[in-house]
TrEMBL record:
EC number: 2.7.1.175
EC primary class: transferase
Species of the source: Kutzneria kofuensis
Source organism phylogeny: Bacteria, Bacillati, Actinomycetota, Actinomycetes, Pseudonocardiales
Catalytic activity entry: D-maltose + ATP = alpha-maltose 1-phosphate + ADP + H(+)
SUPFAM superfamilies from the UniProt entry: Protein kinase-like (PK-like)
Protein name, UniProt field: Maltokinase
Family per similarity comment: Belongs to the aminoglycoside phosphotransferase family.
């Protein structure tokens, strides 16, 4: 097949086509660089009952500066294409077109059935979780989510959602590792996974979860609440009450992670060094931060100066309103992969890191509208939201956020600094939101 690995050194026609196709994908993380070489390093053939061939392919992308990255490409090949294939087509060959298979509902159905059937293909295993309804299931057509993010998620009849990781790193993906550990906590139920080995190391290609049908994400709900507040539809109290439940859900997940994966302590000086390294990297993307660097580092050092120890554990790592779903029976936390492209040298953090992420997210939501009167209203609403989140979090975890103020402030500042870099790279017109937060924390 076109996706069979070639002998090293030569690029196949498909690899050539991928050199220009890949950088145009939303999930491609090359940071504006164009690869000069793509090599197929693994291909696991799919078992299909439709008129298509398919495979889960792993490619290694090389850049002129010597850097390399691994990506997963689910590929299909057909002579008669599915309708609406759009930009999924990669290469036309005499025996059919090769395309991104996530748009092919039949091939995605085959993938689901392979997980249900506990199949293996090459070095890849399709693994149902014990007792999950997926075991032995028939293929259900799958449709990709309209919003493409860092990865590609495919929904099966509102029953299951399969996240196919795009950029791959050796090792078990934390999304799978943490979900397996905290089954029963406020996260969507894990139904299965696609995992295997590459060059002798474990690798996770996909995770399958119960789909939270009818749920809405926290960002939609928060920005709707902000609009309703400023247009006088209501006083924002309904969302404030819901945020207390969100605080309790985050605490529930933290308690489960601590119970099942353990806790440890860290000197606050170590945390200050880690946050300081992150600041150095943020300054590369957003040099304007350099002017405030000394004052930022002073905030990071404050807990150490007070002789504090920091309780650490596995955490979510990139918690914000877009990562929480309000389902009929309460909030669920999703997407445990941590920050995209995280270069953090710590595997564990204080759970206050996630609390800080949510607090920053409320600020983002409140920054979506803006004249002087609404700013005044929104500042008051924001205090209520922060208080409600802290109350729910404290009730469920026993942690009094007011007593953890200096560590929490260090994490809030760290998140705002990260956001300045993230926005400068990805959405420059949003950079003012975290820049104002950095100034407010330093001034307060
Ligand atoms: N179990 C689920 N049920 C319903 N929607 C979900 C579920 N898990 C994730 N989603 C939605 O799918 C989208 C992509 O998920 P996410 O984990 O954030 O992917 P990515 O890693 O690509 O950022 C998000 O909009 C999220 O709200
Ligand atoms: O969802 P991802 O894991 O890709 O997270 C990245 O992108 C987020 C934006 O989509 C970014 O979040 C920032 O913007 C959000 C509003 O769009 C806001 O709610 C968050 O608080 C803010 O951090 C996230 O930081 C980034 O890692």
């Amino acid at each position: 097949m076109h996706w069979d690995p070639e002998s090293p050194g030569r690029m196949s026609p498909l690899e050539h086509a991928l050199v220009s196709w890949l950088p145009r994908r939303r999930w491609f993380a090359g940071g504006g660089r164009d690869p000069h070489r793509v090599e197929i390093v693994s291909a696991a053939e799919l078992t299909t009952d439709c008129a298509a061939r398919g495979a889960l392919v792993i490619v290694e992308v090389s850049y002129p500066d010597g850097d390399t990255e691994l990506y997963q490409l689910p590929l299909g090949q057909r002579t008669v294409l599915p309708s609406d294939i759009g930009s999924a087509a990669i290469m036309a060959a005499a025996d059919g077109v090769v395309y991104d298979a996530t748009v092919d509902s039949g091939l995605m159905g085959s993938l689901l059935a392979m997980i249900g059937g506990a199949e293996t293909s090459g070095s890849i295993g399709f693994c149902p979780e014990p007792g999950a309804w997926i075991t032995g299931c028939e293929p259900i057509p799958g449709r990709p989510l309209a919003v493409e993010q860092s990865n590609t998620s495919v929904v099966f009849g509102d029953r299951a959602i399969l996240k196919l990781f795009r950029r791959l790193a050796p090792g078990v993906n934390p999304e799978l590792e943490l979900h397996r550990a905290i089954t029963g906590a406020r996260v969507p139920r894990l139904l299965g996974a696609i995992e295997g080995t590459l060059r002798g190391a474990p690798i996770t290609l996909g995770v399958l979860h119960e789909f939270a049908a009818g749920s809405r994400d926290g960002w939609l709900l928060a920005t709707e609440a902000v609009r309703n507040l400023v247009s006088g539809v209501d006083d924002g109290s309904a969302f404030v009450a819901d945020v207390e439940l969100l605080g309790a859900a985050v605490a529930d997940v933290h308690v489960a992670l601590a119970d099942r994966l353990g806790t440890s302590t860290m000197d606050a000086e170590v945390l200050a060094d880690v946050l300081s390294d992150r600041l150095d990297r943020a300054i590369v993307a957003a040099p304007a931060l350099a002017r405030q660097a000394d004052r930022i580092r002073a905030v990071y050092r404050a807990p150490g100066a007070a002789g504090e120890k920091v309780l650490t554990q596995r955490v979510h790592g990139d918690l914000h309103l877009g990562q929480v779903l309000r389902a009929d029976d309460g909030w669920l936390l999703t997407d445990f992969e941590g920050e995209p492209a995280a270069e953090d040298r710590l595997a564990v953090h204080s759970p206050l890191r996630d609390v800080a992420g949510m607090l920053r997210s409320f600020d983002y939501a409140a920054s979506q509208v803006g004249d002087a009167w609404s700013r005044y209203q929104l500042e008051r609403w924001l205090s209520r939201v922060r208080e409600a989140f802290g109350a729910g979090y404290g009730r469920e975890s026993g942690v009094d956020l007011a007593r953890a103020r200096s560590v929490l402030t260090a994490y809030e500042l760290d998140k705002a600094v990260y956001e300045v870099a993230y926005e400068t790279r990805n959405r420059p017109s949003w950079a003012g939101i975290p820049l104002r937060a950095v100034a407010a924390i330093l001034g307060g």
